[in-house]
Amino acid sequence: MELAGKQSWFHRTWHSDIGHSFRTSPVAIGAAVVAFICVFCAVFANLIAPHQPFDLGTLQLTDSMLPPAWVEGGSRKFVLGTDDQGRDILSALMYGARISLLVGFASVILSVAIGVTLGLVAGFVGGRTDAFIMRVCDVILSFPAILVALLIAGVSRAMFPNASEIVVFGVLILSISLAGGGGWVQYARTVRGSTLVERSREYVQAARVTGVTPLRIMRKHVLPNILGPVMVLATIQVATAIIAEATLSFLGVGAPPNSPSLGTLIQVGNKFLFSGNWWITVFPGLMLVMIAVSVNLLGDWLRDALNPKLR
Q: Where does the record place the ABC transmembrane type-1 domain (predicted)?
């Protein structure tokens, strides 16, 4: 019965308006395939990566600076070449994408939790509470997002120089989530606008008359009806968060050196870019672009699919 229920749910979704929109959109299908490949390689890097790039016991300095296999001097053992420490670029991309995706998704989840909560409260309660939350949003938006994230990450690094990896990643996620341009502020403003519309609807007035508490009205009635714009915004913001993480790592205040992300790999390769070893920088950059573009295209498709005016 459970399997039949899952199949019927998949069948209904596949043949729904959103499923039809996905099936008839080559761009969405292509973006989904690219995103799936990137996520699959990152999640299962331990199983499919040809080498262990961050295991010092397996590295050989004689393998350093090897070009890609199709370039003269390259080796079939290292398809995309190696870096200055002899690490396989292809394997490093898989492990680096795992860190970037983990930080990106975690930042978006935290941003959604903070922004949706504050947006609901601001839109439903109104008055001084609404004015205070929105003024805080305005102040945060007045600063460039990357500078806010850089300030939080940099100050935390200076205060806790010997922090563990978990603390470093936690601070990185928090700094990206609190930044105005790609953080919780966007969700708070979006949810507030939708809540202002929903709170005047008949079903909310009926719930108030019957004695339902405001918290239950927000959680059970208003929240499910405003999740559409939040889902679209979250999909698009994943790419923004990944790029923000890569920027911070490139500047040296992101992922730790022993757990490098795509931004860290680009920073390492940038030192050798003008010496002719282009592959150390180009391939991590291409991986970052592929992830960001595919996620953005999926977000654009989802926005159009959930818009009833475009059906």
A: 97-299
